[in-house]
Design goal:
Structural class: alpha/beta
Number of strands: 6
Strand content: 15-25%
Shape: globular
Radius of gyration: 13 Å
Largest sheet: 6 strands, mixed
Strand order of the largest sheet: 2-5-1-6-3-4
Oligomer: single chain
């Protein structure tokens, strides 16, 4: 049994399968989930687990070379925008409809219980060397 890091076996296994350039969509409870990507649904109740908790846990285990979020996050969810800005100085912003299109190409979708709008980010995996 693992003693640290992500303990959810489905999520831990899915992360181990990711490679350089693969996309990981971390999304709120309301984001439409595209057909195709593997989905690990962590949502339990509204707000649980939060977008921030899940993102922090993923960033502790993944190498991320880029991130894309919806431009609407700036006005609709300043806390999530600040969180993303703190982690990704070069955060790419696109319209929400475009983010939904891009998410169809993700390798993995991690759904949180977040209940605030536009708490979604598409991470692009990097390489550790």
């Amino acid at each position: 049994m693992k003693k640290t890091g992500i303990l959810n076996r489905h999520l831990s296994g899915a992360l181990a399968e990711l490679g350089h350039g693969h996309g990981v969509l971390v999304c709120d409870a309301g984001m439409p989930i595209p057909k195709g990507p593997r989905v690990v649904d962590l949502a339990f109740r509204a707000g649980v687990p939060s977008f921030a908790e899940v993102l922090e846990g993923l960033l502790a285990e993944l190498v991320v070379e880029g991130a894309t979020a919806a431009s609407e996050i700036r006005g609709a969810n300043p806390a999530a925008a600040a969180l993303l800005d703190g982690h990704f100085p070069d955060l790419a912003l696109v319209p929400h409809e475009r983010l939904k299109e891009l998410s169809a190409e993700a390798r993995l979708v991690v759904r949180t219980g977040e209940a605030r709008p536009y708490a979604n980010v598409l991470l692009r995996c990097g390489v550790f060397f």
